[in-house]
Specification:
Blueprint (H helix, E strand, L loop, with lengths): L19 E4 L5 E5 L3 H10 L5 E5 L11 E6 L4 E6 L4 E4 L4 E9 L2 E10 L5 E5 L1
Parallel strand pairs: 3-9
Antiparallel strand pairs: 1-2, 2-6, 3-6, 4-5, 4-7, 7-8
């Protein structure tokens, strides 16, 4: 009864989603990724527990990865500093004011003051 299974081209099996999950040096949880549609779906589901969502894109609408991201608290201390693995980034931050700087190809986009409030979800698109 043994036999060979028919060969199936690898293109029918896309690679599993690559999503980086970690904690900053200051112990704040984050997710980074979302390059493929599969990754975006997984991140949307897993991202429900995070209170900050950032999306990185060009003004043309093209998504960006490998963005150098720094989030600082109101006193200027680093909360998170990372090179992103995709155009989506989620973090769980405390209720406080923070600033964000995202750099790609030598261009930096800043959000000077972003207020994180308990129970509120904040979404920002950085172009």
């Amino acid at each position: 009864m043994g036999g060979r299974f028919p060969e199936v081209p690898s293109a029918q099996f896309p690679p599993p989603p690559v999503i980086i999950e970690g904690k900053s040096d200051q112990r704040f949880s984050y997710l980074s990724g979302g390059v493929s549609s599969d990754e975006r779906e997984v991140m949307e589901e897993r991202g429900k527990i995070f209170n900050l969502k950032l999306v990185f894109a060009e003004k043309t609408g093209d998504y960006l990865a490998n963005v150098s991201l720094t989030i600082r608290d109101a006193k200027g201390g680093k909360v998170i500093s990372i090179n992103t693995d995709g155009p989506r980034f989620y973090a769980q931050l405390p209720s406080a004011s923070c600033s964000i700087a995202a750099t790609f190809n030598g261009r930096t986009k800043k959000i000077g003051s972003l207020n994180m409030v308990d129970g509120k979800f904040v979404r920002q698109v950085l172009l």
